[in-house]
What does this fold into?
Amino acid sequence: MNNKILGEMLDLVNKAKMSDEDKKHYRLLIRFIEERMLKGLRNDPEAMKKLLDSYEKKKEIIKNEDKDAWKKLMEEEEKELEALVNEEK
It folds into this structure.
């Protein structure tokens, strides 16, 4: 993740009205996501295309306010994530 964006995200967390413990967990989550995403992209060069496709689908679904399509896409992505988690075990 771009250092500027990462810095801004962490700054927002630090300024948020939440407990220090929650802020700590949120900062860890941001770092975890950053590391996992980088690892995933290194291991699967096609992942960038998948991410872009997913983003485009979501934009279109939101634009059309299609709740059924959103639910279907979320179910598909959940299955993909579960498969990735199971691969790592």
In short: The helical segments are 3-15, 20-43, 47-64, 67-88. The chain has a mean pLDDT of 85. Residues 45-89 form one domain. The chain has two domains: 1-43, 45-89.
